[in-house]
Every structure is written in C-alpha cells, then in structure tokens.
Specification:
Layout: E1 2-7, E2 11-12, E3 20-21, H1 23-26, H2 33-44, E4 48-53, H3 54-57, H4 66-70, E5 74-78, H5 84-97, E6 103-106, H6 108-112, H7 114-120, E7 125-127, H8 132-144, E8 154-157, E9 163-165, H9 174-179, E10 195-198, E11 201-202, E12 220-221, H10 224-234, E13 245-248, H11 257-270, E14 276-280, H12 282-285, H13 290-294, E15 298-306, H14 310-316, H15 322-334, E16 341-347, H16 354-371, E17 374-379, H17 387-394, H18 412-418, H19 423-443, E18 450-452, H20 456-461, H21 464-467, H22 474-481
Parallel strand pairs: 1-4, 1-5, 5-6, 6-7, 10-13, 13-14, 14-15, 15-16, 16-17, 17-18
Antiparallel strand pairs: 2-3, 7-8, 8-9, 11-12
Helix pairs in contact: 10-11, 15-16, 16-19
The structure holds iron/sulfur cluster.
The site of iron/sulfur cluster has 12 residues, from loops.
GO molecular function, one term: catalytic activity
Protein name: Radical SAM superfamily enzyme YgiQ (UPF0313 family)
InterPro entries: BchE-like, Cobalamin-bd, Elp3/MiaA/NifB-like_rSAM, Methyltransferase_Class_B, rSAM, rSAM_horseshoe, rSAM_sf
Length: about 500
Amino acid sequence: MKVLLVAPPIMDDLFWDKPQAIAMDAVRECPPYGVYLLQAVLRQAQHEAIVADLIADGSDQIEPYLKDLQDCGLVGIAATSMSWPTAVSVIIQLRKLRPDVPIVLGGIHPTMFDYYILNTYQVDYIVRGEGEIAIQALCAALERGDGVENVPNLSWRDRSGQVVRNPIGPKLSKTALGDFPLPDFSSLPMKLYKGLSIESSRGCAFDCSFCSTSYRKTWRGMPAEVFVDRLQQMMPQAERTQLDMIHVIDDEFTMNPKRTLEITEIFRKRSLTPTLVFDSRATDLLHEGLIASIAPYTGQFLVGAECGYDEGLLKIGKGTTTQILEDAARMLHKHGLSGQADFSFVIGLPWETAKEVRQTCAFAAHLFATYGVRILLQWYCQIPGSRLWEADRDAGLVNEAMYNNYGFFRDLYLFRAGVKLSPKEIWQISGLVTSLQTMSRLQYPDRTMVEYGHPEPIALFYPEEVMTRHPDGLASLREVAMPEKTLQPIRLDPVSSRAISTERPLRHIGA
Ligand code: SF4
C-alpha cells in the first residue's frame, strides 16, 4: 500500500496574510523523528511510504504532494497540540482533493481527544499512543479489506457512527525500540535543518504537574550499545544539516545516568565524536562523573529548572530543589559547559502570585550572573495532557475545543485560566525581565543570555496604554469636542512602544 505521512509545522497567522511557521519549526531545529520513523517501519513492511515534510516546506499546503496523494491508499497525519491547527488545515485540504482516502491521525493531541476529533472532523482513524505496530496492522487490514477491530490502539467509527476504542497494545520494550529501522534522512534538503533527530529512550520516570509529554511514569531506554550503533549509522547524514548536530529527542536523555556514562564510554572506545543536543534534569547532572563524560559530545542542552523556589519545585514534582539547580549550574561552570546550557523556567504557574514569579526571575538571574548559564523564562501555557490541565478541565475552565484555530495560545480566556496574575503585574514583570536583558547585554554583547517573551494575550488585550488611568477626562473631552478634520485609520499595535518581545523563548541551538 502507498501511504502519505504528513508532518504539519507549528504555525500562526496573526501578522501575515497566510500562516507562517513559528517557534521551533520556524528555525527548523530537527526533522520530525516520529514521522520519518513510521516511514522506515512501513518501508520495512514492504509498503511505499512518502513523507510530506511540511516543516521543511514551511507551509501548511498539501497540494505540492498531489501526485502522491492521488494514488495513495492511506494518509497519516501526526500532531501535537501546538501543530493541531495546521493539521486541521491539512485535513480540510485533503478532503477537497481526495474525499475518499482514509485518514489516520496520530500524536499526542489526537490521542487525548479521539472522541472529540472523530466526531468533529472528517477523519477515519486515530492511533492512540505508540504508532509503529498499529500503523502496520492498519495498512494490512485495509489491504486485505478486513475490519479494523483487531488493530491495536485504534479509535474508529463503526457503521452506526459510534466511536469504538480498540484496546491498547503492550508498550514497546526497550529492546523493541532499538529493533526498528532508522529513519532515512538521506533526501532531506541540504543544510535546511539545524541538526538530525534520533531517539535513545521513550517516556519519563516523572510526572511533573505542568508537563504534557507522552508516557510519563514509564521510561524505556535502549541499551547503550544499541543506541550508539544507531547513532553511528546516522552520523554521516548529519552533514546534511546546518550544524552537523544530532538532536536526541528523548524527554530526558540522562534519566539513567549510568546508561549515559556507558554511552559516552562507548563513544570514547570507538573514537566517535558526535555533537548532541538533548534535555536533562539537574539531579542527573550531579551524578558522579556525568558532566565530565558528556562534555566532549555536548552541542547544547536544556535543563528543565522550572521554578526558583522550593515549594514550587515540590508542587511540580520533578525531584529537584533550588540547591540541586545551583549545584548543577556550578558544576557546569566548573567544567566549562555552562555556555551550552539553557536553564528553562516556567512562570505564572496556576498557584503563583507575583511574589513567586519574582522569586523565580531573581533565582534565574542569579544562576545566569554567577555561573553564566543562559536562562529561558516562559509563561505557563495551558497545553492539554498535564495534571494541571486535567484539573482545570474537571473544573470546567478548559476543554478540547479550544485548540483548533491558529493562535489559540493568544486566547485571553485560555491564558488567564492558567496564569492568575493581573495584567498590571504581568507588565511589571515584563519590565523587570527587560531590565535584566539589558544588563545581560552589557556583559554578553554578542549573545542573548536571557530569553523571554511577554504573553501575547496581555500585549493584545491589555496594551500598556490602557493600563495607565489618566487623572481626569477633560483633556480627552476637549479632543472629542474638536475632532481632527482628517480622520486617520486606527492602527492597532498589539505590543507597546517599549522594546518588549512577544517571541517565544527558544533554546539556543547553534547560537
Ligand atoms: S518535565 Fe521533564 S522530568 Fe518532568 S515529566 Fe516532563 S519530561 Fe519528565
């Protein structure tokens, strides 16, 4: 069977007449691993699989793939919540171009909202959770003309229109993860992506309250030797990228520090010198010898620091403290690795007042000023799937229908359902961070050491101008009484005249 697999980018349409890629997909950090892996799995099962890499295209348009679309027997689309509006755009186009082709969705957003999506959009199937086994079983069933009752993880509609949820199959073992063929990146456009992508483990042993990643509380790491074999096989293709780096897409690459040490030991024995991008926890970094052993292979890494006060870290449940974060930053500085480390903080968590947000900003500033780590300050965003989101859904504050349109993250209601600070407090914090950014530029004129984005809903609905109440309205009254002869069109400037950016903070790959 011929299958067209679509990878939609994260997009927005606020400032442009057509949607544009934003955030990590605007800078094309790395190719979408999951979609290319499914392509390899399907090819191994003797299917023809084509990837419509819309992230590489920087577009939501499926028409360039019309030829493949016309003779394929199945279209698969993978989507997170952030890329879901683009997936919706693709579904609408597909239904115009090929009303008859079965469409299967996968990824975290369709997994969470299978009932809603199957009842709302013209799609046929949703794979919940891991897709490698399910998509092969689905292709086989469609080819045979059988029913899909036995396809694991599949949600679908029966003849009466009722949504049926097939049972979830066993999670892939750590050995099975390493048995899949590697994605084929040999036809990626030259020097388009910053790096390649690879997986060394799936899931995470923790369940942080704000985190919406899949497979929390289940971590499965490939054996060190297997991962290095796969990485070694992929390394020559990294030349196709801008920075010759390989992005380990794991939620937490160093989750098992002993395995990380084994991996670096194999690198050393085989004289391999990959440049890796990965995510890590501060606690893991303090494992004896880990920083020194991983340093020669580190291009950039992100430490999820999250909070600058211990009560907040306890509520998040990541198993770290401010002392651990500081110790990790100190160790990185000692080993000359702090310049490659981005410490990421979440501000405006639902329980936080302005005081706690300031504490986090002050702690982050301290780590940057003392140890030279870069800091990312990101406002809490109500992304589905986390424990906090589930609690808000139970309270009737959020639901699955709030993520269908471009720019859902600009929705004032959605933002304020999560962040409980007043617009005035948020503006004050933005002012504080902007001062911090100015100071950081004095010390590091060529590098952005403090990444921050003022929340778009506040910039749009509470621009700084409306935050200042004038002492009396007489001046305005006189202006109204004597209007100007020529009426000028009203120009809406969503951001104040102050130099405050609403860009999303991004990790610093290659910066
Ligand atoms: S934030 Fe990191 S440590 Fe916490 S659950 Fe998510 S992936 Fe795991």
